[in-house]
Amino acid sequence: MIDTLEKLVKAFGPSSKEFEVKKVIKDLVKNIDCETDEDKFGNLVLHFKAGGPKIMLAAHLDSIGIIVTDIDKNGLLHFSQIGGLRTSFLLGSRILFENGIEGTVFYEDRDALWEPKEFKIEKFFIDIGAKSKKEALEKVNIGSFGVFYPIFSESFDRIIAPSLDDRVGCAILVEVAKNLKKKNLKFDTFLVFTVQEEVGVKGARTSTFEITPEYGIAVDVTTAGDYTEPKINAIELGKGPAIKVMDGGMITNIDLRERLIKMAKKESILYQLEVITGGTTDAFAMQITKDGVKTAAVSVPTRYVHTQGEVIDKNDIKNIAVLLKQFLEKETF
Ligand SMILES: [Zn+2]
């Protein structure tokens, strides 16, 4: 699964430009016995036809990023955010564009560097090494998308990389797809790789509407607050799948959540409960589509979400893949 994750992290895919990530996934699942389909909005759907209620598992393909808004006479690029990119996370970051061009992020106002609270996105710029606007225009334009340069590292039990949100969810769904035994399935199962989550959980809306599942589970990252004392929340790396109770957008379905907890206990999988007050996932859109979907979410505890160096624990992601597979093959209604 780690090799899969590395491939997914290195694929270019900010919101609306998820093509490369999709290509990697299609290639990884090409020998699996399931129906593969892509909807009009761009979501990739793997359907494992079976009896039982319809269930949809969702992980998003897209990452946060930047979009070029203007190029000045010196060839420096001004930009805006795609998704929830905090300006204070940007300084000194390396940016990769779709065509392979790289740049480094800096800030116009040198005095403000000592007062980071004052940072304004308009004053950041990307230096791609161009000496003039004309030269810059040979490689980028207004509307060019960039992402954090994808450096993927394994260290101790941990992985350090950008865009683990939510390529790790995609890697988990690919792992589930590879390991599922179709004859054991207790659900008519849809694994959905969604587009444009970071700009308003959009792919989850259209795909949930089309599939009309009875149950939904989003697989995404959640902020682990375990790197300071006192902790900012109860979530810790290495303490297992975080079964979501609530986030900034939703409260999960009690019945489905309890079933996931019971399954984790039965299978002796270490788990933790997640309550966070900010942010949300595809589960938010799934839950309130059509006449409603019983929706839960399983999260990968992640430090420093939406930075160039997100950190996760390998054991957590293995355990999530096992929990989801067991759930799909063993849960009874
Ligand atoms: Zn996410």
Topology overview:
Elements: H1 2-10, H2 19-28, E1 35-38, E2 44-48, E3 54-60, E4 65-71, E5 77-82, E6 94-97, E7 102-107, E8 124-127, H3 133-137, E9 145-148, E10 153-155, E11 158-161, H4 164-179, E12 188-194, H5 202-211, E13 215-223, E14 242-246, H6 254-266, E15 272-275, H7 282-287, E16 294-302, E17 310-313, H8 314-330
Parallel strand pairs: 3-12, 3-13, 13-16, 14-15
Antiparallel strand pairs: 1-2, 2-12, 4-5, 4-9, 6-7, 6-9, 7-8, 10-11, 11-17, 14-16
The structure holds zinc ion.
Q: What attributes does this structure have?
A:
333 residues, alpha+beta, Aminopeptidase, Elongation Factor Tu (Ef-tu), domain 3, eight-stranded mixed sheet, 17 strands, globular, binds zinc ion
Fold and architecture overview:
Helix content is 26%, strand content 28%. It is of the alpha+beta class and 333 residues long. The chain folds into two domains: 2-63 and 162-330, Aminopeptidase, CATH 3.40.630; 65-148, Elongation Factor Tu (Ef-tu), domain 3. An eight-stranded mixed beta sheet has the order 1-2-12-3-13-16-14-15, with helices on both faces. Helix 1 (2-10) packs across helix 4 (164-179). Bound molecules: zinc ion. Zinc ion (ZN) binds next to helix 4 and strand 13.
Tell me the radius of gyration.
20 Å
Class from secondary-structure proportions: alpha+beta
User: Major beta sheet, specifics?
Assistant: 8 strands, mixed
What count of helical segments does DSSP give?
A: 8
The ordered string of helix (H) and strand (E) elements is: HHEEEEEEEEHEEEHEHEEHEHEEH
Distance between the termini: 30 Å
Number of domains: 2
Poorly predicted ranges: none
Outline: globular
